[in-house]
Amino acid sequence: MAKILVTGGAGYIGSHTIVELIENGYEVVSADNYINSIPLTYERIEVITGVKVPYYEVDLVDLDALKVIFREHPDIKGIIHFGALKSVPDSVANPSFCFDNNNISTNNIAICAEEFDVKNIIFSSSCSVYGNVMPEDLPVTEDTPLKNAESPYAYTKQNGEVMLRFISNVRDINAICLRYFNPVGAHVSGELGELPSKRVNNLVPVITQAAAGVRPHFTVFGDNWNTRDGSCIRDYIHVTDIADAHVKGIALQLAGKTKGNYDIINLGSGDGVSVFEAIQAFEKACGIKAPYEVGPRRDGDVETIYSNPKKAEMVLGWTPKYGIEDMMASAWKWQLKLAELGLAKEKL
Ligand SMILES: NC(=O)c1ccc[n+]([C@@H]2O[C@H](COP(=O)([O-])OP(=O)(O)OC[C@H]3O[C@@H](n4cnc5c(N)ncnc54)[C@H](O)[C@@H]3O)[C@@H](O)[C@H]2O)c1
Predict the structure, then answer these.
(1) What's the gap in Å between 226 CA and the centre of ligand 1?
(2) Is 169 within a domain?
(3) Per residue in 37-71, pLDDT tens?
(4) Measured in angstroms, how far is the CA atom of residue 11 from the centroid of ligand 1?
């Protein structure tokens, strides 16, 4: 089976995708600089798959260092490019760092793809590219016009898509941009999950941390949005379902069955779930309360967004398998595993 380079492979979605790639017979090489992960992730992957993944500690911004991987693995057939800074608040606080990291990394990946004749790239994009959509635009399809980016992070995702569109126009490179909605949960075995080195600020890990007493409570950012219960609405999707879509995407590219050289596909469930509904789903699935307080709205957040997932079904033959309570139950299983591993600490 083909060899795939996974950038950001020690990260949350990258590691779950490596598991699915291995279980589908692919060989994997991983590249990460651990700016938001730790190499221990590879041990967790090995616990599930029995495979030691070859990995490089490399900053994707460093083109020369990146090229070493391609020289040492001339049989790489595809790149799944997860490596990026993903924190919206951090990007708002430090835009230039986020621009440098995310944009240069993506361009370097494209430069290497061309130089080392790797024809397939899958790019981690995000529903944040849609910006603050109007209620009449919901659910968003891939043709919904993009609004202004609400954060530097979202801008890097718009930018990454555009870069790959221009590059795939003039080079023999096939690019698929997958726009994830809100990936949550953990591997169903409970052996792998989100293990960030930076402080987490997305909803599900802060719910499980609060429920476990790792943090005293978490904050719901605003209960005065114009939604059914005043909290923001998102489209949550199990991380293993997201991983599975990448395996289907790379298989399509390797089989030469993509339509054209460039495509964009939403990965969401199609259901909007409010923050308060997500908290209730956690409490129902896990039988435990997660203490929270309501705070002011957060810069860079959009009010409501959920997807129309039909294109993913049509093009990739992909539909999500897991529901919101499965997502919460697996996340909780991982929180308990973190405690067992002595890693259930809150980062400051
Ligand atoms: N998790 C989400 O909610 C979400 C939603 C939409 C899109 N995405 C995108 O999906 C991708 C993966 O997200 P994730 O949740 O797994 O995040 P993550 O932070 O867990 O993983 C990203 C990985 O990339 C690495 N990385 C960052 N910059 C790097 C660099 N310059 N060189 C080498 N490695 C680098 C980090 O150390 C980390 O291991 C990202 O591109 C993110 O923007 C994530």
Answers:
(1) 30
(2) yes
(3) 999 999 999 999 999 999 999 999 999 999 999 99
(4) 6
Q: What is the CATH number of the domain that holds 219?
A: 3.40.50.720
| Ligand 1 atom closest to 239 (CA) | 1
Of 236, 208, 202, which is closest to residue 220 (Cα–Cα)? 202
Full domain range(s) for residue 204: 3-340
Active site residue 262: no
Residue 9 within a domain: yes
Q: Is residue 220 part of a domain?
A: yes
24 token code pair:
């589908």
pTM: 0.96
Pick the residue whose CA is nearest to atom 21 on ligand 1.
11
Q: Low-confidence residues of the chain, pLDDT below 70?
A: 346-348
Give dist(CA 216, CA 4) in Å, integer. 41
pLDDT of residue 201: 79
Total domains, the chain: 1
In tens, the pLDDT along 131-186 reads 988 889 999 999 999 999 999 999 999 999 999 999 999 999 999 999 999 999 99
Nearest CA to ligand 1 atom 44: 86
| Ligand 1 pocket, residues with Cβ under 6 angstroms | 8, 10-14, 32-37, 59-61, 82-86, 101, 105, 124, 126, 180, 182-183, 196, 202
Cα 17 to Cα 46, 68, 266, 271, 321, distances in angstroms: 13, 23, 17, 23, 15
Q: How far apart are CA 205 and CA 162, in angstroms?
A: 31
pLDDT of residue 347: 61
- Phi, psi angles (nearest 5°) of residue 13: -75, -35
Residue 348 lies in a domain: no
